[in-house]
Amino acid sequence: MPLDETMTETFKEALHQRALLADGAVGTEIYRRGVFINRCFDELSLSQPDLIRSIHEDYQAAGADIITTNTYGAQELRLGQYGLAEKQESIVRAGVRLAREAAGPECFVAGSMGPLPHLIKPSGPISAATARENYRQQAELMLDEGVDVFVLETFRQLGMLEEAVGAVRAVSSDIPIIASFAFKPVRHYFVGPTPEEVSAAVATWDVDVLGTNCVNGPQPMLEIVERMQVSTGIPVCAMPNAGQPEQVDGRTLFLASPEYMAEYARRFVQAGVRIVGGCCGTTPEMTREMRSFLESVEPKRRRIEVKPVAPRQAGIMDEQPLPMRSRWGSRIGNEFAISVELDAPRGLDASRCVEGAQLLADHGVQAINIADGPRATARMSALALAMQVESAVDIDVIVHYCCRDRNLLGMQMDLLGAHSLGIRNVLCVTGDPPKMGNYPDATGVFDLDSVQLVRAVRNLNCGIDFGGDPMGEQTQFVIGCGCNPAYEPLEHEVEKFRRKLEAGAEFVFSQPLYEPAILERFLEAIRPFPHIPFFVGILPLASSKNAEFLHNEVPGMSVPKPIRARLAKAAGRDAQRREGIAIAADTLRHARSLEGISGAYIFPPFGRYSAVLDVINLVENAEVRAEI
Questions:
Q1: How far is CA 191 from the centre of its chain?
Q2: Is the dihedral of CA 194, 196, 199, 204 positive or negative?
Q3: What b/e sequence results for 567-599 when a residue is b if at least 16 CB atoms lie within 10 Å of its CB, and e otherwise?
Q4: By C-alpha distance, which of 462, 407, 458 is closest to 428?
Q5: CA 427 to CA 325: how far, in whole Å?
Q6: Which of 9, 48, 457, 523 ranks highest by number of CB atoms within 10 Å?
Q7: Rounded to whole angstroms, how far apart are CA atoms 396 and 434?
Q8: pLDDT at position 550, please?
């Protein structure tokens, strides 16, 4: 099918006349509708055309102006990983035709091209010529089928994006191109080029729209596009994820609400963005809500399953009593204890963490806990930091250990080594998926989940290794687990907590909570279970913006609307910070009053340990005044 020149011009006209609404995710929507991630999603245009057509039709019905083809990975190199390179032409043509059928006369069809499976030289093994030829082949096929615009999306390497742009321009000098980069911000810097650097580079290429998609949710992406707009006169597009992904019952889900995504769609347009849409986790329901919100701005024209580890009867040893295993084991359940989370450094210098632990110990905090690559970020090993803290500070140390980064063999070796070095307190967690972090293409192992890990560590305490064989010796770990009392449906979280107890968990840290009723509801639900020391998670909120980000974009976090409104009413950042401290103090004070609560697990906001002490002091001073 030849390119319709009038449609090409219409897209360019529409781009300058009004904000355009692109559709949302195709890949995660395929996954949401029951296709597992080990399939080649691009090939589904051949084997399950009705599924792909229905996704496009749902986005069209929701009000999208742009329908994106299911051809993101349809390059010869990427298809070759599935043994499908010889089917490239039929896969690409089918992907465009299905989008065109669903789009009808009112929507534009965007031909999607994503990054190749490896970086180009010198950062990777692929030559620039190979990259350009892969994209040229794909672009020719899509152009022949009649796409209205090309969207080059989720690129993380500028050189590869440049080759893709060059390949499209080699087959057409005037078809519109949307060049979209996936930024990875980490605190106050970027892993890879900054928005300003990308804008400066792309401005020298012949593209019609500069954009960003994937990796980020709406809030951080708004800041990115504002920086891009300052650096370029090219129209800008934004296609954020639906917050950050979360593992729920073995499935990767995005839990931001349609209303939240829609509100940010309006903010994007008000900030001058010309195309707004969605990436991973967005759905037709979100697109429909986004269309509704955009009407107020400008009217529209038209795991692999792993069997539980079960010890053999021979060689089982009796576990040591909890108080004999560590000071933390003797402390929990006998006094109200507080543990504060330390963030391991991103580099080599752990002095600030050690100093923070000393500050906390000097003010009576009983324990610190060290997260294991939280939010899938690459940091100093939690075990290494734990050894440094233990050697310098008289404070109990709890090490988080997650299932994401090591296989079964590596986990057993780590834990035996940690025990030999004196580590005794372990919190067993599944771990955030790699896609959330600064190495999104890293492999998530997940040989075990948190329940199986608890069981396996208990086996070590009984002298049985992960394979079920006697070791002749036994570890003396104090075994912790996590829980999320705000999770819905509640019965699922209660059942998972029950399985962790049966596996051998001996204390539990909850996700941060802000609503007493949620905590009390969960405690009532688990009342029939055997009791273990329960530590309430507390995270002082730094600002209204921080509260919105945590609620919508951090897995497992829920900040109730009344709490977010309370922060929003405070005038200015300092006032909001004080309000956040007061809210956290209210939670700690309430936790102290509840039967069955053994302590608190406090997260220092942005690594500010002083905020933790502010919370503790506020509660203790109030108790002193009450006694007087």
A1: 16
A2: negative
A3: beebeeeeebbebbbbbbbbbbebbeeeeebbb
A4: 458
A5: 15
A6: 457
A7: 29
A8: 86
CA gap 7, 469 in Å, rounded: 69
Q: 496-519 burial by CB neighbour count: b if 16+ within 10 A, else e?
A: bbbbbbebbbbbbbbbbbbbeebb
Gap between the Cα atoms of 560 and 587, Å rounded: 13
| CB of 436 closer than 8 Å to CB of 245 | yes
Q: Which residue has the tokens 């350009």?
A: 132
Token pair 């290429």 in the structure block, residue: 205
115 close to 160: Cβ distance less than 8 angstroms: yes
Beta strands 149-155 and 108-113 are parallel
Distant-in-sequence, close-in-space partners of 573: CB < 8 Å, separation ≥ 6: 543
Write 404-409 long-range contacts (CB < 8 A, 24+): 404/373, 404/376, 404/430, 404/431, 404/432, 404/433, 404/434, 404/444, 404/445, 404/446, 405/372, 405/373, 405/431, 405/445, 406/445, 406/447, 407/445, 407/447, 408/306, 408/447, 408/448, 408/466
Confidence band for 622, pLDDT divided at 50, 70 and 90 = low
Please say whether the dihedral angle defined by the alpha carbons of residues 85, 87, 89 and 93, taken in this order, is positive or negative.
Answer: negative
Give the separation between CA 505 and CA 456, rounded to whole angstroms: 11
Task: Tell me what the mean pLDDT of segment 74-94 comes to.
Answer: 96
Distance in angstroms (rounded) separating the CA atoms of residues 353 and 357: 6
Q: How far apart are CA 549 and CA 188, in angstroms?
A: 16
Backbone angles phi, psi at 622, to 5 degrees: -65, -35
Which tokens go with 515? 């609503």
Instruction: Choose the weakest-confidence range: 35-44, 290-299, 302-311, 565-574.
Output: 302-311
Q: Is the peptide bond preceding residue 122 cis, with omega within 30 degrees of 0? A: yes
Asked whether the beta carbons of 91 and 71 are under 8 A apart, the reply is yes
Domains of the chain: 5-295 (3.20.20.330), 322-542+595-608 (3.20.20.220)
Give pLDDT, residue 435: 60
> What is the model's pLDDT at position 140?
97
Strands (DSSP E) contained in 472-620 are 478-483, 507-512, 534-538, 597-602
Mean pLDDT of 581-593: 94
Determine the residue type at 412: Q
Q: How far is CA 334 from the centre of its chain?
A: 36
- Among the ranges given (34-48, 178-192, 522-536, 561-575), the one the predictor scored with the smallest mean pLDDT: 178-192
Can you tell me the distance from the alpha carbon of 392 to that of 395, in angstroms, rounded to the nearest whole number?
9
Three-state SS string over 23-85 comes to CCCCHHHHHHCCCCCCCCHHHHHHHCHHHHHHHHHHHHHHCCCEEECCCCCCCHHHHHCCCCH
Residues 59-80: tens digit of each pLDDT: 999 999 999 999 999 999 999 9
